[in-house]
Each structure stands twice: as structure tokens, then as C-alpha cells.
Amino acid sequence: MRIRTCILLVLVLAAPLLAQTEGNLEVTSDPPGTTILLDGEFRLAGVTPTVFSQPLNGRYTLKASREGYESYETELLLTGGTPLRVNITLAPKTRFKAFLRSAVIPGWGQFYAGEKARGIFFGLAALGSGLVTLIAEEDFRDKKESYEDLLNEFNEERSIEVRKQMEETINLAREEAYDAETLRNISFGILAAVWTYNLVDAVIFFPNKRYESYAPRVSLNTGDDLSSVGLNLSFKF
Fold first, then answer.
1. What is the DSSP string of 111-127?
2. pLDDT, tens digit (0-9, with 9 covering 90-100), for 106-116
């Protein structure tokens, strides 16, 4: 009677474990602990290693993501009753890739590294300083052109009296052009500083994390004579 009870207990405890080995789709990954999203006729989710035991049919989009790694996406054609095993290898995010992204668009490397707040800051800072630089450049060109036009008129003027009257206007136009050029140079320097610091930030403050699998592992232990049963549930962080 005792042996029969132990056998029944073993079958009850082992049923969920046996069910995990049968299914329409099995997904494993390197590294394990990757979040899997399956989108098609049904929307399903799991953490690798995982088995989707539902009878899935048709086209599904499989998306894999894990912090510190680049996302992965692929299309699957599933037929109910035909098991399919998919193994995914995620590429780790690197400082070099973050640097290249930030070199193209300030803040992009920070977004890539998962630092959204800093990405928004550098993106807005570069956008603002860039707009100020464009406005300052346009203002400088206009004032420089006005000064050069006045200077040409002054050189072509033959009347000494008129030339004396024009001197004050020309001097004022020259000062305005000089001030506009100074402002243009300052705004350009700020833009260059933001861009440079954005690159430094993307490299130096890139999150240097090592992720371990946090997926639970379940094992069933029985004695040689089925007189004892043990169920172990362990987590790795």
C-alpha cells in the first residue's frame, strides 16, 4: 500500500515535468533566461528554456530579448502536432556599437545601452545646440553680407562728404558682423562639446554587467525503492 501511494505521488509530481518535454515549440537560447514573445493566432510568452505545448498552427513572429543583449526576431511556420525546436544565440551589446551609434546621432548609443534618460538628455542637448548654431550661422551670414554691401558702396562712392557719413554705419555693421561671428563660434563650440561628451559617455558609462540565468530549475528525486520522494526547486541569480 505504501509503495502504491509513493508511485502515485511520483506520477503526480512528475506530470508537469513530463509535460514540459512535449509540445509544439521548444525554445532554448544562449544565454538562458531570455524572454520569448510569440505573436500569431495566439500571443504567448515564456523564459528560456521553455516549451509551448499548445497546438500552434500558422505563421508566428518570435521575438527574443534580454537585458544587455541585442534583440532577435524571426518568423516561424508552425504546424500542429509537428514539434519544432529553436535555439537562439543573442549577441551581447558592446561599447564599440554604442560609440558608433552616438557618433551618428547623439543619445542613440545611450538608448542602445538601455540608458534612456541619458539618451533623451544628449538627444535634446544636441538638437537644441544644433538649432542655435544654425540660427547663429544664418544671422552671421546676413550681417556679413550687409557689411560687405556697405563696404562696396563706400568704395564706389566718390563724394568725400557721403563717405564720411557712411563711416559710422559701416563701423556699426562691422561690429554687428563680428559679434554675430563670435556668437556663431560659441554655439558651434557648445554643439561640438555636447557631441564629444556624448561619445565619451557612451563609452565610459556603458553598463558593464554580466547576466546569469535566473530561470528556475526543477528536479524530482526518488529513493531506490521508491520509499522516499523529494522535489527540488532552485533559482540561480
1. HHTT-HHHHHHHHHHHH
2. 999 999 988 89
